[in-house]
């Protein structure tokens, strides 16, 4: 089949780091079959050519395709590609959330541990939970991103190309654009919340909320949200009064995305809330001015991120470091990274790393002692290799 032939050539080009050719072949293959694996491959090729927006679109579609096939390993890998693309877009909070989903579906995903550490470092460096780039807007089940192009006939050179030419067929890659979300009906609108010691985040999950007609009122002890519902004369209202505890409205904020309203309440007193709503009234401190929302962040594709290293050769490109074609020197940098990770870890993390590494004979590494303490690790050699017991 032509699509399989193009997919195989795309995979071969990807493995040889010929990313433009990989994109061309995989684009032809995906015209017929929306394989989650092929989408993952093309996402990787896009990401390694610094086309992070396109890489994210393919990864989102790969998650949906993998869910249809009920393949947990593919769902995990698709979320992993989302995390890498989001990191390239400097959306560290979203990248970190996707890595959590990777761990949920497959905690042995290749590269997971090192990317968790890398994203965590950039998250902290960017300013922690208060930084705009660290806010969480990503959805576990993303919306489909459609490929669109002008109504043209398929290219004539979609037949298999000769191997000795060394080039893929001249096929223009179609631009990817997000489909406009259909407004959520009133009965399907829901909310979720989570917290840190210093803040509470509330997400009202509703698509197509009209930002210009939405009102969000944050006071010291209350929260009010209202917006008109599309296709009707009614208004959706969400109110919490009193809040569980007093908040600092001057540091609290909100923003509206195509899929939800996200509200971040800054706790006046750090601690844990057992609920959103409290029992004792809190005096209003709201001024006459309306609380302003967060301006939409503008993310632009850029070159692959480079990080400091102790290598004599200078900074390293981490994506290349995680590629399939690592050389011996890059392996030394990975070894140095884990040594530094162990050196700076707390006692429980060190115990987890040592136990998982020793029991698995160097084939697994975990930093979570809560998981490692009661778990037995088996030796799991890389694909295509066989574990053998040495006899003296």
From TrEMBL:
Transmembrane segments: none annotated. InterPro entries: CS_dom, HSP20-like_chaperone, SGS_dom, Sgt1-like, TPR-like_helical_dom_sf. Residues 186-277 form the CS domain. Residues 324-333 have a biased composition (Acidic residues). Residues 373-392 have a biased composition (Basic and acidic residues). One of its GO terms (molecular function) is protein-folding chaperone binding. CDD domains: p23_CS_SGT1_like. Residues 306-392 form the SGS domain. It comes from the Eukaryota. Residues 146-168, 303-334, 353-392 are annotated as: Disordered. Pfam families: CS, SGS. Residues 357-369 have a biased composition (Polar residues). Belongs to the SGT1 family. This is Related to SGT1 protein. It comes from Phialocephala subalpina. The lineage of its organism: Eukaryota, Fungi, Dikarya, Ascomycota, Pezizomycotina.
